[in-house]
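Retro notes - structure team

What went well: the batch runner handled both jobs without manual restarts.
What didn't: labels got mixed up in the shared folder, which is why I'm recording both outputs here explicitly, each with its sequence directly above its tokens.

Job 1
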Amino acid sequence: MPTVRDRVLDAYETLLIDHGGASVTLDAVVAAAGVSKGGLLYHFASKEALATGLLDRLRERSAADAEAIRNAPDGAVAYYVRTSAPGGASPGGLTRTYLAVLRLADSTTTGQAVRDALAKVDADGYAALLDELGDPVLAWLAQLVGDGLYLRTLTGTPMPPDMTVDDLLDRMRQYAPRRQ
């Protein structure tokens, strides 16, 4: 069963994704989470503290995902590309948290902290890809492919007809084989 803190953060994520940062209030989070105002304020004393809590969650989930990338049986590139493709969200909630945090990026009060957290997520993924590939250019190219697929996921744009993620990975492996 999720803790009150997790329920609050889950509700905050949903509200951010559905309505954007400017329209989310503490009262809306209380209602969506099904907690008392005191329960919310015990964990997050302000809207800024709530945003900080979400950024902490993003960093935690990013670190766990980077570990999953490194330990993926099919390799880091395959994991990164598959979880970036439409329908392939990362386990552990990173994709959802990342999307919610994106909705905070233009905030004047939390904007820089959000950009810093997103840069950390990017660095975690890149480092895991670099561990496998050993070449910074190939690691960055693999990350860009994953980022492009992730953008398609966010916008609902499908893969090109008659192409699958496996087709993409097969071609990528020709140019970026796993280090032994």
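Job 2
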Amino acid sequence: MSTAPDSAHEDSARKFDASRAGEYRQQSRIALAGYEACHELSACMLAAALGAGREARILVAGAGGGATEIVTAAALEPRWRFTAVDPSEPMLALAVARLAETGLAARTEVVHGTVADLPDEAAFDAATLIGVLHHLPGDEAKRAILRDIARRLRPGAPLILAGNYRAYASEPLLLAAWGERWRQQGAGPAEVEAKRARILQGADPPPSEDAVAELLREGGFAPPLRFFSSLFWGAWLARRVPDAA
């Protein structure tokens, strides 16, 4: 049985407690080979979709951690303003600290909560959902956050969706390579095995790229274009269809 959307957000937020938030910035760069490249290309894709140099309001769902989406995009587009949303208070605190450090606090509204807590109006020119979907258990929670984002986007507005897809156990070679990535960065055999056990038990990614496209369709988006891939990770751009509700 699928987890209810509100409960799924609460469960996901609890996973990113203070201890996990503290290790996030370093760990995420190991877990995702090409972390910076994905964020840089995401900003470039949004700029290409919106038109370089224009003003835009960007919704950043799941912005906690190092606020990398905002820092990277803001450097490329100085006229963009951001709304950062995250249900995890420790993760959001990290983002707030990073925004202050980079001088971007004045360009960013910070919301402790979920996208559903925002006003229900199509006020945003674009959105990002990076590293979030595979942490939400069940398809209904995944569809719900996509619908919530779609309702707050202008018709035709682009969404950057990025995260893990494919069932981890279904791709043993990719899973083994993921373990080797940790070994490459200095992890011993016991730590590598613990990381592998954690990813197998701690996330619920869509089972395929087709499943990602179907979730986006059900959430109110046109067919996506993939622009980045790294082992289990993929990144896509999809546009809100005009009649999404």
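One thing worth noting from job 2: The mean pLDDT is 90.
We'll revisit the folder naming next retro.
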